[in-house]
Design a protein that fits this description.
five-stranded mixed sheet; 17 strands
Length: about 350
């Protein structure tokens, strides 16, 4: 049974650490690979990325698998959350073995951050190593194949998409071949997920699931968003992050191709995208449970297409699951508060 989430790729687990109140509106999300790790790659397209250990994922370099990927708030400060994940993995003896003893490992933990500084009111309230440990422990304690909390949780706690509240979203699909492809996103874009002319979500138009809001609803939403924007002083230094995963057996080069084409999923759901003040980053993970036919290299195309499609659906789910925020750091209405549920 699938749950339309990243955890439909067997062996992957997801944990959130969420901080709210008293100046906080941020958090960290960890994707934990099965023991032994998953083949990993990355593709960065935003002009202002904040990342850690992404060079290790280059197909030309030594590291083939990783044990975890960290998505975090806090901008570059929040990358410290990866240290807590590394420490936990070291305690489990998980990582690249560099010595003869079981504990002599170096966990490679790629990480990427979103800008949410000050959105809870305190610029210095941001994730640290303890936040990362809390998130990876939550992932390890989760049920295999379990549902993933969406919306304003983990790294999506302080996320914003254009003028509406963003968050974490996830989605999955099973191909005719039996291969599973899934995505988890942190939707926090400088661009908008909402068509200003109609009020529909761009991602839903491409899914063929359009229900146009009544004109009076759309006009009321536009007035509300204009009021909120008039009082906003923080710059749109935003980023969309994604982890796209599959149980197919991929090389690092194939995984990198998957990460690259998955960016198309962001571009379908957010406009404009990949700006200088975005840090859009997609990680790809492949657990290798299902071999692809080596005699038919183009079978990878189905995986690539599904990766982009699931990223689009995950962004839609993130925006729809988000809840409004009205606090000392700012006001960000939720899409469903403005336009109603689907």
């Amino acid at each position: 049974m699938t749950v339309d989430a990243l955890t439909d790729v067997a062996g992957l687990r997801v944990g959130h650490a969420t901080r709210r109140g008293e100046g906080w509106l941020t958090g960290t999300t960890v994707v934990l690979a099965p023991p032994g790790g998953a083949v990993a790659a990355v593709d960065v397209r935003g002009g202002g990325p904040g990342t850690k250990e992404t060079d290790a994922l280059d197909p030309r370099n030594l590291v083939r698998t990783v044990e975890a990927v960290v998505l975090t708030g806090g901008s570059a400060y929040g990358l410290d959350a990866a240290s807590g994940v590394m420490a936990w993995l070291e305690e489990q003896g998980r990582g690249i073995r560099v010595g003869p003893r079981p504990g002599e490992v170096v966990p490679v933990v790629p990480a990427a951050c979103v800008f949410d500084l000050g959105r809870g009111g305190d610029f210095r309230a941001r994730p640290d190593a303890a936040t990362g440990r809390q998130a990876v422990e939550a992932a390890a304690a989760s049920e295999p194949g379990g549902r993933i909390a969406q919306g304003c949780v983990g790294a999506g706690t302080g996320a914003v998409v254009g003028s509406v509240k963003g968050g974490v979203g996830t989605a999955s699909t099973v191909l005719a071949s039996g291969v599973t492809v899934a995505a988890l996103v942190v939707a926090n874009a400088a661009g908008s997920a909402v068509d200003p002319a109609t009020g529909v979500l761009y991602g839903e138009v491409l899914q063929g699931r359009v229900e146009y809001p009544a004109p009076r609803v759309h006009q009321a939403a536009r007035r509300r968003l204009a009021e909120v924007a008039a009082h906003r002083t923080t710059p749109p230094l935003n980023t969309t992050l994604a982890v796209v995963a599959t149980d197919a057996a991929l090389s690092k080069a194939q995984a990198q191709k998957l990460a690259g084409t998955a960016h198309d999923g962001i571009a379908r759901a957010v406009r404009p995208v990949h700006l200088l003040n975005d840090g859009d980053t997609v990680f790809a993970l492949a657990t290798g449970a299902r071999p692809l036919d080596a005699e038919r290299p183009l079978v990878l195309n189905d995986v690539l297409a599904a990766g982009a499609d699931t990223v689009t659906r995950a962004i839609v789910n993130a925006v729809r699951a988000a809840e409004s925020v009205d606090g000392p750091g700012g006001v960000w209405p939720a899409y469903e508060e403005l336009y109603g549920p689907r």
